[in-house]
């Protein structure tokens, strides 16, 4: 699963205020010809990204190229069950990333559009947000 090699701080704030608004960067296709775009804002965990990646990879069966445009860089801490209030912040549990509306999550290339669209739809089912498949506009 994806996780940072090194962290400046072991525990960070969740930044749930960052859930507002649209993506300022990373909202256009940069590498592939077809991609999966977030329609709503939310938080994606490393497990969810990995599940979507596996769904895509299995669908295309060793064909094409996949780019993952997001990285879970924020540690999310959690306290153990039935621990009383106080006594500090919990231990880091998993890594997540905030995804804004309009951000490109995955890109693909080297496949027929039909096969790539199907793979991206399967990946979208694994994610806790609304997504849509977008293609590069060719003139």
Describe this protein's structure.
The protein is an alpha+beta fold and 139 residues long. It has a single domain, classed as Aldehyde Oxidoreductase, domain 3. It has helices spanning 46-60, 113-125, and strands at residues 34-38, 42-45, 65-68, 74-78, 91-99, 104-109, 131-135. The strands form two sheets. Strands 3-6-1-7 form a four-stranded antiparallel β-sheet, with helices on one face. The chain has a three-stranded antiparallel β-sheet with strand order 2-5-4. Helix 1 packs antiparallel against helix 2 (113-125). It is elongated, with a radius of gyration of 17 Å.
Structure characteristics:
alpha+beta; Aldehyde Oxidoreductase, domain 3; three-stranded antiparallel sheet; 20% helix
